[in-house]
Fold this protein.
Amino acid sequence: MGKKFRTHVQGESLQKKIDADYERYFSIWALFIAFFILTLYVWLFYFGVWDITFCLAMTFSITTGIILVYGIHKSRKLIKHIRNCYKGMEGERLVGEMLNKMSNDSTRVFHDICGDYFNVDHLIISTKGIFTIETKHYDRKKGYKFLFQNGKLMFNGRQCSTLLNQMDGEANFIHEKLNVLCGRDYPIQKVAIIIGAYIDNPQNEFSNYWILNENSFPKFFVNAKDCLTIDEVRSIANQITEWIKVSVD
């Protein structure tokens, strides 16, 4: 029987990051516990009948203290990163479920396409065009606001070029890859779906960037004009599947 293959599911890369963070977290505290127990034994030796010098006992004590301070500092960063990853993964799954409902013969949806140091959260190959989608998930209670005006993106009153650069990079990555896979120069629509934040686009500028919430994207997508045939969609989707498929153990 031949190998079975699948493509990634939404949030798969973030789940791997979370697993790696947990592994680092527990490794730090396992090291501390080991040195703590060893230090206790050293001091017991020092105050008991065994020949242990005060200098050696202090060396182990200081080392254990350094590991404790480092562990607390590093653990706080890891916990914060894990929480952010969980938040991002929740957003990717919410958007992924929405996109999966839109999938049909004329619209193929892919998730978590990995580059060298980044990933494309979602990719749509459709008769409506080719869309790279970056997902952001915020706490709705905190009142975050995006303003897109004159080609610039503002986040809570400060310029935020990071998201636009991220969208550009992901679109360029897919554009170049499709050029290699299919031998054609396909235009890519850059999309950011933002959950939990207010988005203001007073000039209604949607030519280069679609910066939308999860409720707006389906409407924009449905209203987009067809630019690819179903046969083209199938051909491109097959090439993408062959490129990103992973073996199922």
